[in-house]
């Protein structure tokens, strides 16, 4: 039986690790107004045929940019941190090969990195990568002024047992496996809640995730100069739009350039299907903001 195209592979990508895919380019991106590296963190259980809709669009928009796609399996919520770190190591290897860090090649100009994150699953993967990079490179990772933008599609949100149950019910079709997984998740939730009360500090995964996402350097090349675009919808049953709005407003209050694009009719991580032109126009607009900030900083350094 032949495989359906796009289901078991990403067209034009190489598999470089478990759930990690790389699309390298033969030519370097000479246009300094365009990103040369695009990081995509998929939502929990995202199928390759769905992620391919985004990789294809990015290939058309920025054909000379390398792309790294990171999938998120449901076990991200109970797998040990050490295992998750090992799975993400190929991402660091790829970023090094693409000259994103000072140790790669001192002659290389600062990279231009666009990061696109989907849902809380993708956010968990991104924040863990940020911790790994900080431990490995520390302050040496700071570039003179790296052009960067962060796109947050359907995230972040605090989450509750109702939304957690809905999320895993969508991803895990096998009813027996679903019951087992939900039992594990409920147990972890109540254990975390109990420990939070006993220790007097929050250790709930989703609450900690929201706090980490307020870090302007959630990835080391980012900063207050990095514009953020929140894409979300009133009809999203998994990520309440009020949670996303509140997160964006808090980010603004902390000095970050946070912008919101609120959709009315789309479901979770489905905004691009309902209004593709508006979606991709917003992506291009936020990157234009990132480049304009880079030019202002370059001019300031020359003065």
From TrEMBL:
InterPro entries with a match to the protein in the record: AB_hydrolase_fold (IPR029058), DUF829_TMEM53 (IPR008547)
Protein name (Swiss-Prot/TrEMBL): DUF829 domain-containing protein
Protein family according to the UniProt entry: Belongs to the TMEM53 family.
Pfam families: DUF829 (PF05705)
Record-linked PANTHER family: TRANSMEMBRANE PROTEIN 53
Ranges annotated as spanning the membrane: 176-200
Listed GO CC annotations: nuclear outer membrane
Organism: Suillus subaureus
Keyword vocabulary terms for this entry: Membrane, Nucleus, Transmembrane, Transmembrane helix
Localization: Nucleus outer membrane
Membrane topology according to the record: Single-pass membrane protein
């Amino acid at each position: 039986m032949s495989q359906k195209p796009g289901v078991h592979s990403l067209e034009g990508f190489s598999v470089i690790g478990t759930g990690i895919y790389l699309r390298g380019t033969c030519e370097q991106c000479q246009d300094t107004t365009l990103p040369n590296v695009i990081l995509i963190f998929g939502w929990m259980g995202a199928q390759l045929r769905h992620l391919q809709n985004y990789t294809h669009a990015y290939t058309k928009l920025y054909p000379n940019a390398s792309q790294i796609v990171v999938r998120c399996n449901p076990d991200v919520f109970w797998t040990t941190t050490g295992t998750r770190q090992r799975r993400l190591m190929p991402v660091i290897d790829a970023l090094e090969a693409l000259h994103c860090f000072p140790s790669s090649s001192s002659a290389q100009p600062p990279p231009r990195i666009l990061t696109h994150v989907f849902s809380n699953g993708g956010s968990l993967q991104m924040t863990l990568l940020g911790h790994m990079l900080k431990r490995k490179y520390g302050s040496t990772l700071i570039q003179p002024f790296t052009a960067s933008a962060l796109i947050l599609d359907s995230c972040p949100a605090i989450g509750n047992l109702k939304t957690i149950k809905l999320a895993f019910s969508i991803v895990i079709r096998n009813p027996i496996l679903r019951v087992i997984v939900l039992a594990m998740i409920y147990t972890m939730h109540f254990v975390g809640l109990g420990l939070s009360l006993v220790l007097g500090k929050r250790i709930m995964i989703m609450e900690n995730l929201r706090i980490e996402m307020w870090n302007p350097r959630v990835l080391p090349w980012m900063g207050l100069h990095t514009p953020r675009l929140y894409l979300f919808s009133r009809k999203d049953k998994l990520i309440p739009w009020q949670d996303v709005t509140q997160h964006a407003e808090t980010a603004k209050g902390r000095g970050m350039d946070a912008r919101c694009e609120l959709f009315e009719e789309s479901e979770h991580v489905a905004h691009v299907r309902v209004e593709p032109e508006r979606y991709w126009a917003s992506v291009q607009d936020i990157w234009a903001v990132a480049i304009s900030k880079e030019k202002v900083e370059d001019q300031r350094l020359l003065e």
